[in-house]
Design goal:
Length: 467
């Protein structure tokens, strides 16, 4: 399914919304158009009621284990969001305190990500994907400037990364004409291999992308080892290749649960970091963050001065107007939780994830691939030799119970492996997890005993774990 929307066929253009008879006095008797504007307004109560009824068809977001996005915030945060929905974040002249809160958040993150000298520069974005795009542009422009200064060609930039990166990185390459060089993941580590990184680098490499928590399996790329490999590569080749850490998810996990893990600005080669405030930053969609370790890491050519809103501001974004409410919500969480609060929330999510992983490991037909020990994420596949059902059939069966678990194939070189994933977020309790495990066992047993859509005359396969 695409997020692009095509115009409906001619036969549907005059369709009317189905309206409850109880709303008859609030709107035209024959209903209202679905795909075009009605001639006249209807009452606000009627419009609200129609939309609220339609939205019942959406899934329960709290049971959506596919998404990393936050699906719950405290009532006080919701009130602040409602009160600041009218704030345009880019209008610093009219909303200077909202801009001040954005600056405070950037400073908090720079400190959290262990910047040694505190000279960083950063900004909020609409999400971690926009943050990644901005970081990629900075890498490209800095490389281009170096190539120009040295009198070398600058028309064939490439960016090195693992095959487990988020979709935004291949998008970046296509949109901004950068060759994407992906290092395939391997069965043993399932992360970016430092030696594989070096083998893909050359004089046209604008940077390396390391992921702190892949969306497929939740593992952290070994950033410190990649940095060390690039140090050795520089000694032998003279090429100084920076690292950008895509910490969309792990940027709000590792600092609290693995403070001694070196992946951040403690490594001089890490030029920039992005993270998603609306994932484990615990904010509703959409806010992301990007921070550069040194101001010079962000080329001045990318920063625009604008005075359209009355005051003169410097801006570096892919869009212009953007709501300030998500930034206010992020600052609320920072103020409300502090370090200890974030640590408690993230540890609880990890504990629940590891409880689920322990239960999944006892189901004979399933094999655990990720146990929640880094990101609070569980991934598993059907055990080799078990052909009674696929993870896609199991996903469909669980959806009938209200659970939304994505099933997908791993990236190259493991594209033949289908997996199911569960992302455990704030608010998903141990009691809810126990209900999920009960339903998971029930559906696996049903499929193993011939309850799938396959021919029921087919004998069940051997789903006993290998001894």
């Amino acid at each position: 399914m695409s997020n692009l929307v095509r115009r409906v066929p001619e036969s549907q253009r005059n369709e009317l919304l189905s309206v409850n008879p109880l709303y008859a006095g609030l709107m035209p008797a024959d209903g209202v158009p679905t795909y075009q504007l009605a001639e006249n307004p209807i009452s606000p109560d009627a419009a609200q009621a129609i939309i609220r009824d339609e939205l019942m068809l959406d899934g329960n977001s709290r049971l959506n284990l596919a998404t990393f996005c936050s699906t719950w915030m405290e009532p006080q945060a919701r009130e602040l969001i409602a009160e600041t929905l009218d704030r345009n974040l880019l209008d610093h002249d009219q909303y200077p305190q909202t801009a001040e809160l954005e600056g405070r958040c950037v400073n908090i993150l720079d400190n959290l990500w262990r910047d040694p000298d505190g000279k960083s520069i950063g900004c909020s974005t609409a999400g971690s994907s926009e943050a990644a795009m901005l970081a990629g542009l900075a890498l490209k422009f800095r490389w281009r400037d170096r190539q120009k200064a040295a009198g070398r060609p600058f028309d064939r930039p490439n960016l090195v990364m693992g095959s487990t990166v988020h979709t935004c990185w291949p998008k970046f390459g296509r949109y901004w004409d950068v060759e994407i060089r992906q290092v395939p993941i391997e069965q043993g580590s399932l992360t970016l291999n430092p030696q594989g990184v070096v083998e893909h680098c050359d004089e046209n490499t604008i940077g390396v992308i390391a992921v702190l928590g892949s969306t497929q399996l939740g593992y952290y790329d070994p950033v410190a080892e990649i940095s060390a490999a690039l140090d050795q590569f520089q000694e032998s080749s003279g090429l100084d290749i920076p690292i950008h850490v895509d910490a969309a998810v792990g940027g709000f996990i590792a600092p609290f649960l693995e403070p001694d893990l070196v992946w951040d600005f403690r490594l001089p080669r890490v030029q920039s970091i992005n993270a998603s405030g609306h994932k484990f930053g615990l904010v509703y969609p959409g806010v992301g963050w990007v921070v550069w370790q040194e101001p010079d890491d962000l080329p001045k050519d990318l920063v625009f001065e604008c005075n359209l809103l009355g005051g003169s501001i410097n801006t570096f974004t892919l869009n212009f107007s953007r709501p300030g409410a998500p930034v206010v919500a992020q600052y609320y969480n920072f103020l409300r939780l502090g370090f200890a609060g974030y640590r408690a929330v993230q540890q609880t999510s990890r504990d629940v994830a590891q409880y689920i992983a322990g239960e999944v490991a006892t189901i004979p037909s399933l094999e655990l691939l990720a146990d929640g020990s880094e990101l609070p994420l569980i991934a598993f596949k059907t055990r080799d030799g078990c052909d009674d059902f696929t993870v896609f059939e199991l996903s469909d069966r669980l959806r009938t119970r209200g659970w939304q678990l994505p099933a997908y194939y791993l990236p190259p070189d493991l594209e033949h492996v289908g997996v199911l994933r569960m992302v455990i977020r704030n608010g998903f309790s141990r009691a809810t997890a126990a209900l999920l495990i009960t339903d998971l066992r029930r559906e696996v047993e049903g499929l193993t005993s011939g309850g799938s859509a396959r021919d029921p005359r087919t004998a069940p396969g051997d789903c006993t774990p290998a001894q």
